[in-house]
């Protein structure tokens, strides 16, 4: 019986002795699947694509922010209260100015405290030149 235990542990096909065969792990002696230069080229290309994608995301965000600012000009005191929604995107993928303007008007109607103040805000000169005090006006009472 001791013979079978010793023979079993010395068997090269035993998974306990050669775990790399079971899990697909290659040894250092195995040839490379792809040449190193090819892998480095792929990594460089992938990095460039990630940078381009990041830049495109940033530019899309800026275009949306500027479109909201332009569409809400004169309607909202702070354009950042109107957040981006996919319904503001036109068929061509660009921001739809009319949809943004309509949303800003609806927001200003629903929440007037977000609207930009219009008209007289109580500052500046309100009287005409005829209301200047004079001695005769003071005596007339």
UniProtKB/TrEMBL annotation:
Record region (Disordered): 1-35, 111-141
Compositional bias (Polar residues): 1-12
Name of protein: Uncharacterized protein
